[in-house]
Design goal:
Elements lengths: L1 H15 L9 H4 L1 E7 L2 E11 L6 E9 L6 E10 L3 E4 L1 E2 L3 H7 L3 E8 L2 E8 L7 E8 L4 E15 L11 E12 L6
Parallel strand pairs: 6-7
Antiparallel strand pairs: 1-2, 1-11, 2-3, 3-4, 4-7, 5-9, 7-8, 8-10, 9-10, 10-11
């Protein structure tokens, strides 16, 4: 479990790492998402980039930090083909299985400030858990779509005071539009 946590954090940070000095269109890289999270509308930021198993596959990092900057959540949808289509989201069992089975998966992290509070995994029996890519433009490197999923806490790491997060994340009516980050050289 700790290895999966480390890999998820590294992948999320890798997608978030970009420098405006290196890329003149860096301000366009950050996309937008709207969704209903546990019955409440919410706005998130989105980044898309290549997946580590197959450079032709993509991943999304969908993140929201609270107004007081003390509480946030990041949803990760990974290893889906760079083309329009409907993809079932599965619970991430291990990073090794994801590559061998070419599985499209999802997970989430809850945090307070710089502290990781909880890790979430998809509840496959509480579906539908799906990602639908409605538009993929390989020339403009643009991605659009929608998704829905239900995730539950797999590991509470630091449940303290106001950093406590809900045990279940139910995401419905999720939509996103984002540029795709170029692969790092």
């Amino acid at each position: 479990m700790k290895k999966n946590l480390f890999i998820t954090i590294v992948l999320s940070l890798g997608l978030l790492a970009c420098s405006e000095d290196e890329d003149p269109k860096a301000s366009r890289d950050l996309g937008e998402a709207t969704l209903v999270l546990n019955g409440k509308p919410a706005e998130f930021t989105v980044l898309a980039g290549s997946w580590r198993c197959d450079s032709d596959n993509l991943s999304l990092s969908i993140t929201r930090l609270g107004a007081d900057l003390t509480k946030g959540v990041s949803v990760y949808l990974g290893n889906f083909p760079a083309k329009e289509g409907k993809y079932a989201l599965h619970k991430r069992e291990s990073s090794h299985d994801d590559c061998i089975l070419n599985t499209t998966h999802g997970s989430a992290l809850a945090y307070g400030g710089e502290t990781l509070v909880a890790m979430y995994g998809i509840l496959e029996d509480k579906g539908p858990n799906e990602l639908i890519i409605t538009h993929y433009d390989s020339v403009a490197q643009r991605l659009e779509g929608h998704f829905q999923t239900t995730l539950a806490v797999e590991d509470k790491l630091l449940p303290i005071g106001n950093l406590e997060h809900t045990d279940t994340l139910r995401i419905t009516h999720g939509t996103f539009v984002t540029d795709i980050l170029p692969p790092e050289k």
